[in-house]
Design a protein that fits this description.
This is Type 1 glutamine amidotransferase. Belongs to the peptidase C56 family. It comes from Streptomyces tubbatahanensis. Keywords: Glutamine amidotransferase. With 185 residues, this protein is of the alpha/beta class. It has 6 helices and 12 strands. Strand 4 and strand 5 form a beta hairpin. It is globular, with a radius of gyration of 15 Å. The two termini are 24 Å apart.
């Protein structure tokens, strides 16, 4: 276990329908690098995870409701995918505000699969370069992004990946980029 993110706190913004591996694997990589994570969601209690958007895949306990969360309390943000998860997040004003404030503050943000939908709704993708699940690429282009089909894309402090098949590269990039962005100048 390494400690390059020791003392850093990462918000994971997700709700019901999150793709289990897209939350679990990056969170594990962050913990392995010494970071603390908090699951921030639309409601308290637990959120229901999915596997391949269809099959129930257990639950995750929620640490904080997004309406009560402040960006200043976190060093970085992780936006996992699944289709239902970001589709709900992008219709919630508090979730959209939370994502927007991370981007406006210049804090590192990592997103995978359908996760960028929330950033598109937040109006933070104009002029940004990223990748995503193929079915939302038109939405991201319409939000002003340059969308590419690559395993991992790093655009300043925005890290993105296409989907579960890219998780090994995504997890490595998240730890590497969060570490670089969060080191003292």
């Amino acid at each position: 276990m390494t400690e390059e993110l020791h003392g850093k706190k990462v918000a994971i913004l997700a709700t019901d329908g999150v793709e289990r591996v897209e939350l679990e694997e990056p969170r594990g990589a962050l913990h392995g690098a010494g970071a603390e994570t908090e699951l921030v969601s639309l409601h308290t209690g637990q959120i229901n995870a999915r596997q391949m958007d269809i099959d129930p895949a257990g639950t995750f306990p929620v640490d904080k409701q997004v309406a009560d969360a402040a960006v200043r309390d976190y060093d970085a943000l992780l936006l996992p995918g699944g289709t239902m998860n970001p589709d709900q997040l992008r219709t919630d004003p508090d979730a959209v505000r939370f994502a927007r404030e991370f981007m406006e503050a210049g804090k590192p943000v990592a997103t995978i699969c359908h996760g960028p939908w929330t950033l598109a709704e937040a109006g933070t993708l104009s002029g940004r370069r990223l990748t995503s699940w193929p079915s939302i690429r038109t939405d991201l282009r319409n939000a002003g992004a340059e969308v590419v089909d690559e395993e991992v894309v790093v655009d300043d402090r925005l890290i993105s990946s296409r989907g579960p098949h890219d998780l090994p590269a995504f997890c490595n990039a998240v730890v590497r980029e969060f570490t670089g962005a969060l080191q003292p100048a």
